[in-house]
């Protein structure tokens, strides 16, 4: 869980009004106290916003204290759970501790003792969550360093292969040699794109740096993406729908927008052997300093089953919906997952709808800032 939980969030769970109200009075000055009468309610609140410390009665109507403990630890493993019981035995203590309880106390409880127990749990929660945060930061830095090294070690020699292949193509070659070299170039380029896909996907996952905003022309950006497609037989046909009142310049994450649209467009081209692809652009005013750009890519390709869209499988990494698609179309299944990750980074939205054998529509929207007349 990425969200940091405050170390003073205390939840009291007891179906007896007396202990519940007493504990509330004891801790209300030093903690953000919530009190509920059932394990079910405790779980529901924890799913909304986890607690640092939970004091839960062992025997309650409905969900027991042990079952509540198990679910609370599953929701947020750092939650410190203290078990209260009026029937303390060695087996009770063993059961509570083996399921992740931080401590257990007998009823009726001693006020000083429960204060010390809760304070100790708070210190332990603070220490463990800080350690986890530092560990995750170290792992992130280590992975970023590894990705940079991997990019250099894999792409540098591959760039050499591709470069020397281009030079070799300019020499005197027989027809057979030229054909084999052309195949080698095609394979090298294919491998280059697959390695780049993996590295870019991981980078989008772990990159926490602020996204820079640049001045760009959204209509020109979309036109360049569509114009970059070249097909020897003219299929699919590329059309545009760009209103004349589209703002000529806006401020926004141009690099990320271009990357998302390029992948969506490439995906449509890949699965539309014949027919038409329509690239559309529209916008609306959100406020005086915010526009919402909406890009729409519609194709007449093979389409996607409605169930697969509903399950969001198309946005899962390394996922192609049918194994035959890998054989017929190739690819690692990272394109749409990469678009989704980038979209999340820039607070955009990506939706899709499709009909098998009739085509797909992808709609990508993002917020941008207007450009002053001086900047134009």
Task: Describe the protein's architecture and organization.
The chain has 11 helices and 12 strands. It is an alpha/beta fold. The radius of gyration is 29 Å and the shape is elongated. Strands 6, 7, 8, 9, 10, 11 and 12 form a 7-stranded mixed β-sheet that branches. A 5-stranded parallel β-sheet has the order 2-1-3-4-5, with helices on both faces. The relative contact order is 0.08. Helix 2 (39-48) runs parallel beside helix 3 (65-75). A hairpin with a 2-residue loop joins strand 9 and strand 10.
What is the CA–CA distance across the termini? 44 Å
Q: Class by helix and strand content?
A: alpha/beta
Kindly provide the radius of gyration, computed on alpha-carbon positions and rounded to a whole number of angstroms: 29 Å
Determine the number of helices (DSSP H or I, runs of at least 4 residues): 11
Task: Please estimate the helix content.
Answer: 40-55%
One letter per element, helices H and strands E, the order comes to: EHEHEHEHEHHEHEEHEEHHHEE
Report mean pLDDT, rounded to a whole number. Answer: 80
Q: Would you report the number of β strands? A: 12
Main sheet summary: 7 strands, mixed
As residue ranges, the low-confidence spans are 317-332
Q: How much strand?
A: 15-25%
Shape: elongated
Describe the secondary-structure layout.
Elements: E1 9-13, H1 17-27, E2 32-36, H2 39-48, E3 53-57, H3 65-75, E4 80-85, H4 90-98, E5 103-106, H5 111-169, H6 175-206, E6 214-216, H7 218-227, E7 237-241, E8 250-252, H8 254-270, E9 276-287, E10 290-299, H9 306-310, H10 323-329, H11 335-345, E11 349-355, E12 359-370
Parallel strand pairs: 1-2, 1-3, 3-4, 4-5, 7-9
Antiparallel strand pairs: 6-8, 8-12, 9-10, 10-12, 11-12
Helix pairs in contact: 2-3, 5-6, 6-11, 7-8, 8-11
């Amino acid at each position: 869980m990425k969200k940091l939980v405050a170390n003073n969030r205390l939840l009291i769970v007891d179906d007896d009004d007396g202990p519940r109200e007493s504990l509330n009075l004891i801790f209300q000055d030093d903690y953000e106290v919530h009190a509920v009468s059932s394990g079910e309610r405790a779980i529901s609140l924890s799913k909304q916003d986890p607690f640092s410390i939970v004091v839960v009665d062992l025997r309650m109507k409905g969900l027991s204290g042990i079952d509540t403990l198990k679910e609370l630890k599953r929701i947020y493993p750092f939650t410190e759970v203290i078990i209260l019981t009026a029937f303390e035995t060695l087996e009770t203590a063993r059961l509570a501790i083996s399921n992740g309880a931080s401590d257990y106390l007998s009823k009726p409880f001693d006020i000083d003792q429960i204060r010390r127990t809760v304070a100790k749990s708070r210190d332990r929660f603070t220490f463990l969550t800080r350690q986890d945060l530092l560990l995750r930061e170290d792992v992130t830095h280590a992975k970023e360093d590894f990705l940079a090294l991997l990019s250099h070690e894999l792409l540098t020699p591959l760039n050499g292969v591709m470069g020397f292949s281009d030079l070799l193509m300019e020499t005197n070659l027989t027809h057979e040699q030229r054909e084999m070299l052309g195949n080698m170039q095609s394979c090298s380029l294919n491998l280059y794109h697959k390695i780049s896909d993996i590295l870019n996907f991981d980078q989008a996952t772990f990159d926490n740096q602020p996204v820079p905003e640049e001045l760009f022309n959204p209509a020109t950006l979309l036109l360049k993406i569509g114009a970059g497609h070249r097909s020897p037989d003219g299929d699919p046909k590329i059309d545009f729908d760009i209103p004349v009142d589209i703002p000529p310049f806006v401020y926004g994450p141009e690099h990320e927008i271009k990357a998302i649209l390029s992948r969506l467009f490439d995906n449509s081209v890949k699965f539309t052997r014949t027919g038409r692809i329509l690239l559309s652009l529209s916008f609306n005013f959100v406020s005086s300093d915010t526009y919402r750009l909406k890009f729409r890519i519609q194709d007449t390709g093979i389409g996607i089953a409605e169930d697969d869209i509903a399950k969001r499988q198309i946005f899962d990494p390394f996922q192609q919906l049918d194994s035959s698609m890998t054989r017929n179309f190739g690819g690692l299944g990272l394109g749409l997952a990469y678009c989704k990750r980038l979209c999340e980074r820039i607070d955009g939205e990506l939706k899709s709808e499709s009909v098998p054998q009739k085509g797909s529509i992808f709609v990508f929207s993002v917020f941008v800032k207007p450009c002053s007349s001086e900047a134009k």
